[in-house]
Amino acid sequence: MPDYPTSVLLPTTTWTDACTELAAQLENDELLIIHDGANDPVTERDNIPEGVRFIAAGEPERCSGKANAIAAGMEAARYDRVVWTDDDFHHPPDWLATLNADYEDHGPVSEVPYFVGCDPLSILLEPLYASAGSLPLYLGNQIWGGAVVFERNDIDETTFLDELRQTVSDDGLLMEYLEVTTVERTHNVHIGGTIREAVERPVRWTQILKWHFPIAIAGTWLVSLLVLASALLAPLLAVTVLTVLHFAVNEILGVRRWTAMLAFPALFMFVPLILYGLVRRTFVWGGRRYRWRGKFDVTVVE
C-alpha cells in the first residue's frame, strides 16, 4: 500500500492519553497538538515525541474554540491527507494506519462515537444519545469530528476555513462540504461529570442541528413528542418496546451497556431538554460561553 503521510489534528490544552497513543503511531506523519496559547498546561510537556508539533490557535473571536483550533490546524498542517480527532477516547495502536487504509478503499471515512455518561443525568440519557445521535451517524454516512480522514482536495478548503471561523460546529459544517463512508467502528466517549455539563451538552447539540440541519431537529422533536404521548397512554407497553429497541440499537453499534434499560425514563428528560436547547440563548462549551444567533453569527460571551 502506498505510504501517504498524514497530518493528525488534535485540539487539546492538556497532554492526555490520546496524545501519547497517537504520537506512538506516527511514521512519516505529524501530530498537531492545537491549543489556545502559551499558558496552556500542554505546553509544559517535556520530551516531546518526534513528529509532534504544538500549534497555538489563539482566542476565538467569532467562532467556537474547537472551530478556531481546527482552522488553525488545517492552515498549519504540512500534508494533504488530514485526520481530525479528539482527546476523550482511546486510540488503539493501529488506529491511524486503519483510517489510512480505509481512505484507500472508500475515500473520506468517519467512525462513530458512543457517549458514556459520567454523571447521573448523562447516564440516564445514554440510550437516547445512542438512538438519536450515534445510530444516525452509523447508518447515514455522517461525520463525527472525533474520527474523520479526508484530503484537502476533497473539499473547497478556502471557503470552508473562512466559514469555520464564523461558526460553532466543526463537523456540522464539514458535513456540508464532504461526503464520507461511515465504517463499522464505535468508540466509547466519556461525557459529563457534572450536572451542568450534562445540561449544556444537549443544548449545544440541539443548536447544531437547529442551524445546520433544521429538518432533522424538527423531526426529532416531533417523533419524541409522539413517543412520549404513546408512553403516557400505554406505559407498560412503552417500557417493553423502548427497552428492547435500545438494546437492539446497542447491538447494531457493537456496544453492550445496561443503560438501555433506562430508555423509558430517559424519554421524560430528553424531550424537555430538546425544547430547552432550542430556546436557550447561550451555552457553555470547553469553558467558554457562546451566543449563537445564526449559522455564521457567533459571539464569545466569556
Q: Could you characterize what this model shows?
A:
One of its GO terms (cellular component) is membrane. Pathway: Lipid metabolism; sphingolipid metabolism; Sphingolipid metabolism. The chain is of the alpha/beta class and 302 residues long. It has two domains: 1-106 and 143-179, Spore Coat Polysaccharide Biosynthesis Protein SpsA, Chain A (Alpha-Beta Complex), CATH 3.90.550.10; 127-140 and 192-288, no CATH class. 46% of the residues lie in helices and 21% in strands. The strands form two sheets. A seven-stranded mixed β-sheet has the order 3-2-1-4-6-5-7, sandwiched between helices. It has a three-stranded antiparallel β-sheet with strand order 8-9-10, covered by helices on one side. The model has no long low-confidence stretch (mean pLDDT 94).
Biggest sheet architecture: 7 strands, mixed
Helix tally equals: 10
Trace the largest sheet across and list its strands: 3-2-1-4-6-5-7
Kindly report the CATH topology of the largest domain: Spore Coat Polysaccharide Biosynthesis Protein SpsA, Chain A
Number of strands: 10
> Mind telling me the CATH class of the largest domain?
Alpha Beta
Mean pLDDT: 94
Strand proportion, as a percent range, falls in: 15-25%
Flag low-confidence runs: none
Measure the end-to-end span: 48 Å
Oligomer: single chain
Count of domain modules: 2
Overall shape: it is globular
Order of helices and strands: EHEEHEHEHEHHEHHHHEEE
Approximate helicity band: 40-55%
CATH architecture of the largest domain: Alpha-Beta Complex
Q: Can you say what the CATH homologous superfamily of the largest domain is?
A: Spore Coat Polysaccharide Biosynthesis Protein SpsA, Chain A
Rg over CA atoms, rounded to whole Å, is 19 Å
Query: Could you say which structural class the secondary elements and strand pairing correspond to?
Result: alpha/beta
Pfam families: Glyco_transf_21
Subcellular location: Membrane
InterPro entries: Ceramide_glucosylTrfase (IPR025993), Nucleotide-diphossugar_trans (IPR029044)
Organism: Halocatena marina
